[in-house]
Amino acid sequence: MSSDAPDRPVSFARLQQQLILTEVELMKLEDLRDGLQSRVEAANRLREDMQRLADQACAERDHLGHRAADLEASLRHTQEQLALGQARQAELQAAATTLQVSISQLQERNQQLAQKLAAIESSALWRWTAPLRSLGRLLGRRA
């Protein structure tokens, strides 16, 4: 039994020392846990912020998609209106050309008639019948 007694105090002292070392390790682990917990909370806040930004980006993307579709529809409408305007312009240009031809023909006809009138008025017959025309005008006024 004497051999058991000296081992026991050594064993007990050793257990005490291991217990103290274990408690120190446990305190280190608790400190590490507290540090990690604050980092996890910060990471969660960051994740939430990133989720909020992702949601905003998706909403903005959707809005921009709708806006792009509206702009494309507006562009198509504008192109259609431009095509109609160009067709109307071509019609008006053709009508203007037709009117120019008609005006030119009328001016030519007017010039021909003016030449005929000048030829008639410069003829001897016109001069000889001048008194009759004057008499007709005087009689026409009285009636």
What does this structure look like?
The protein has 143 residues and is mainly α. Helices cover 95% and strands 0% of the residues. It has 3 helices and no strands. The longest helix has 118 residues, at 4-121. The chain is rod-shaped, with a radius of gyration of 57 Å. The mean pLDDT is 90.
Radius of gyration: 57 Å
In helices, the fraction of residues equals over 70%
Q: Could you state the order of secondary-structure elements as H and E?
A: HHH
How many DSSP helices?
3
Stretches where pLDDT is under 50 for at least 5 consecutive residues are none
Mind sketching the topology for me?
Layout: H1 4-121, H2 124-128, H3 130-142
What distinguishing features does this structure have?
143 residues, mainly alpha, 95% helix
Compact summary:
This protein has helices at residues 4-121, 124-128, 130-142. With 143 residues, the chain is mainly alpha-helical.
